[in-house]
Amino acid sequence: MRKNKNNNNFIDKTFTILADVLLRVFPATKEEKKAFEYYLNGLSAQDDGEYAEALNNYYQALQIEEDLYDRSIILYNIGLIYSKNGDYLKALKYYYFSLFINSKFSSALNNIAVIYHYQAVKAQEKNATSLAESLFQKATFYWSKAIKLEPNSYIEAWNWLKTTQR
Fold this sequence. Notes:
Elements: H1 10-25, H2 30-47, H3 51-64, H4 68-84, H5 88-101, H6 106-125, H7 129-149, H8 155-163
Helix pairs in contact: 2-3, 3-4, 4-5, 5-6, 6-7
């Protein structure tokens, strides 16, 4: 398993050790273990800011992984990387793929809303009022779904919905 270069804190070290142990004792096929290893390597690379390496590992994991729930998480993480790099269309694509598999993935719903909200604010700054309103409505839709699934999460979104009377 890939080791995190900045593995200085207790939580990171503990996670690395647990992941190594899981890979050895996990009652899974060789292919499932390989997919899990690619996934963990992707997480580590993503944490280090090595996004190309992380994407490569996630794509490798997707080639092998059969479990739909696990696939939805991998797709979500790919969306996170594209979002972090400012490629919001690709990020949305992967968040939607994730939701197609797991419609109750509240983090994906939240991140879709965040992107729509961000784009709405940018449109508003350019006086594209109707586009901004349309994007705000999409943000409202996805935040409402995320909050319905996890009422105690997404407090800022909840406050925005309340203060804007959406």
